[in-house]
Amino acid sequence: MQEFLHGTELLFTSPIGVSIFVGGLLGGLVFGAIPGLNVLTLAAVLLPFTAWFPAEHAIMLYGVIYVSGIYGGAITAILFNIPGSVENAPTAFDGYPMTKKGEASKAIGYAVTCSAIGGTLSAILMMFATEPLADFAVSTFGPIEITALIFFGLTVVAGVGSRSLAKGWLSLGLGLLIGCIGNDPVDATPRYTFGVLYLSGGVGFIPLILGLFAVSEVFIQSQRMATGTHRKPKISVNFPTVSEFWALRWAVVRSTVIGWFSGILPGVGATLAAFLSYNEAVRWSKTPERFGNGEPEGVVAPETANNAATGAAMIPLLALGLPGGALTAMMIGVFNVHDMDVGPLIMVEAPDLVWILFSSMFWASLAILLLGMVESKTIVHLLRVPFTLLAPGILVFSTIGAYALRSNIFDILSMFLAGIAGYFLRKSDYSVAAIVMGVILGKIGENSLAQALTMLDFNYLGFFQEPVSAVLVVAGLLTIVWNLTRRLRKYFGVNKRVTS
Amino acid sequence: MKLISKIVLGSGLAMLIGISATTSVIAAGHKKPGDFPKRPITIIVCYGKGGGSDQAVAALQGPASKIMGIKINKVNKKGGGGVNCLPDFQQAPADGYTILQHTDTLVTKYVGGAHNIHPTKNLSPIITSNIAPTGLFIKPDDSRFLDGGKPSWEKVVAYGKKNKLAVSNINAEMELVTMAKVEEFFGIKVKQVLFDKPAQRYGSVIGGKLDVLMEQPGDVIKHVKAGKLAPVLAVWPKRFGVFPNTKAIGQDYNIDWQPLLRVRGLWVKAETPAPIKKYLEAVFSEAYKSEKHQSFLKRKSLTIVNSYQNAADTEKSVNDAIKTYAKIFKGMGRKVRKGL
Question: Which of A24, A169, A368, B295 has the fewest C-beta atoms under 10 angstroms from its C-beta?
Fold first, then answer.
């Protein structure tokens, strides 16, 4: 506690420190909200300038932008179906339908509160249990366990956002297939590239989600305008009530734990946290069919988890020198700029630096709550802009986002193709959420699968020999069986009623 | 409210001052070819963030950016053992604004036929900035490999003769061939598990999921200093100065083999105008010699071998490496590109 207070004192007694804290907070929110310009872009832009700051301020700045950037992407995901970053993609699954139902303010309220809760709990965990948790993570989760974890996550995806289980599975399969396009991650064998250079690098994820979410939505709403069925979303500025939050307490607890776990696994981070947490929300829900149609828990789960992963991602970085995700890997560069190597010795050699980081992440999480409460009352008024003006704006915004990442014109083409495909898929009740989850989980899982199989001498039964992976694989298989029986029972129940 | 607006204004000003101060520092001494560079330069790194290649570029990024007076962006594109970054580079114009950072893997993957970019015909080297030998590391408290409480290569060999030794490695031929040679020299059985992300590669041994890590000493020295990894063999004629108690294949086991080296350098497309290539070579050579970069090399133990080569020497070394690897691959029965 004394160290935390000391870190807080270091942070708030220096005017430069306060300026950097506030600048990082606002910078993260803005960059997180703009597709294609996520928090990593800001971190990369700032890296050379960190040499001008004292080491503790430079490291603190990265902690703050990480926290605020992860939250920032939720706003555009909820209001316009444009996830600012990959970690916010699951937030759009239910956040945008809530906006369409006139509950944008509530959705933002859930997102901001849960981001703050996830981030704060994560910062507390980071302060108290950095070393033991880091050791636990690397000794418990290797490629075999991570593969099993991804399998466990995939088993529930098929049930998200589609009318029938078959269409859910087909959507997931399509996602996995899209994830396979390009050179394979191990031997660089070209797959489905048809000799096209652009495809050998794989389909860019940002253009894909912009196309499937934002562009297809513009097409659907435009069609409704043309046919006179378009309805302007209702605007309300109601923040969720305490009892509404209380009803979701277990979702918050579960998602925080998932966020912690994903964050402390080296090389995994907030993206997996958000997707797995959304999946678990569906798995544990008594009404899973509501997900994808504006279920508040669908916003609460990913936003709690992706922010819970931020502090947790610092744990392997500080305790072992192993970055939990892309931004924490970039922080190694910040340490190097100041002639330091991050790792266990940093806790002994530079405790001030570590504690200012811990306390800044804690206060940044709380500051988000304040900023977000203001945002939930103000930013929703953007929805008053007529659709005829909003639609071109969304398309321009998305085009810039798709192009900004690699300055590649084909990314724009990919985005529009994904938009057209998304339009037809959504019209036919396929699940774009399952497609997106198939792409992201498939990409992470493929690497782990290749490594796991080498370790197991290509014996698939080996997954049952390691206790953690065995539990996860069995739980995944049970989920498939449970999903199938539940749907079959429903199907036969309906048929029986129709016959009688 | 006034206080908040002052703080916000202050932070904005702090950023603006930082940006303008950096962009105004333009070192003299290098004649710019026309108006190049008038916008930021991008360096594509073919491996994950936080690894040796990423750190090598980060160490040059600041000094080179200062010299040119423009920003240098770093983009990591991992996967395919260093091949999946190439399509992005190929799609960029040959104007010097997109630079490729690559390793000896650029050569080995060409020799093995994994890509068709000739490293000196289709590309032009700018400089080589890292040359490093390789070593093997274990978890310091792994009782299977300790003798009298100290890491023992003999114990690792004894275990490897009875069981398959699980080695955490990068998907690069230099390491794969080196490990295959170690396997052959010591008569052990090995399975190599390949990782693109350095954190997972190191974590798998620190966490006890795999037995041995193959890596360049400088990339893991912080883990060694922190007691999370311990060196157990230097794949080098002599013991490394930084790990004097760790046995070396030449000095301690009389193995007469010229070890392969991890080489990292910068490249542009061959069609890039010659004055731009010359300018970039001069800039990055000066950045290499800067105090900041030299301190990085020292801290990372990248001084075991002279890490610098200019464009001409790099071109010669790369052409030699193509022949050497073709010979090694043929000797090992591995696939070799036609005509080599």
Answer: B295
Of B31, B57, B70, B106, residue with least CA distance to B276: B31
Q: Report pLDDT digits (tens) over A3-60.
A: 788 888 878 888 888 899 999 888 888 877 765 566 777 787 777 677 778 888 888 8
Predicted local distance difference test score (pLDDT) of residue A159:
65
- Distance, in Å, from the CA atom of A193 to the CA atom of A358, rounded to the nearest integer, reads 45
Task: Tell me the residues of chain B between 232 and 291 that have a Cβ less than 8 Å away from chain A.
Answer: none
Instruction: Please check whether residues B74 and B109 belong to one and the same domain.
Output: yes
In b/e form, how buried is each residue of A173-207, taking b as 16+ CB within 10 angstroms? ebbbebbbbbbbbbebebeebeeeebbbbbbbbbb
A residues 134-193 lying closer than 8 A (beta carbon) to B: 135, 137-144, 182-188
Instruction: Report pLDDT for B23.
Output: 38
Residue B327 lies in a domain: yes
C-alpha–C-alpha distance, residues B318 and B312, integer Å: 10
Contact A322 B209 (CB under 8 A): no
Q: Domain containing B142 — which CATH number?
A: 3.40.190.10
Q: Which of A231-240, A484-493, B62-71 is predicted least confidently? A: A231-240
Q: Give me the pLDDT at residue B258, please.
A: 85
Question: Are residues B207 and A51, on separate chains, in Cβ contact within 8 Å?
Answer: no
Chain B interface, mutation test: which of A320, A409, A456, most B Cβ atoms within 10 Å? Answer: A320
Do the Cβ atoms of A447 and B21 come within 8 Å? no
Q: What is the pLDDT of residues A456-495, one digit of tens each?
A: 999 999 999 989 999 989 988 998 888 788 777 777 776 6
Mean residue pLDDT across chain A? 83
Domain identity same for B37 and B184: no
Q: Could A341 and B222 be called an inter-chain contact, meaning their C-beta atoms sit closer than 8 Å?
A: yes
**In B, which residues are within 8 Å of A60 by CB distance?**
none
Average pLDDT over residues B308-321: 94
Is the CB of B15 inside 8 Å of chain A's CB atoms? yes
Give the whole-angstrom CA distance, residue A454 versus residue A58.
40
What's residue A417's pLDDT? 94
Whether chain A has a CB inside 8 Å of the CB on B332: the answer is no
Torsion, Cα A462 A463 A467 A468, to 10 degrees, reads 150
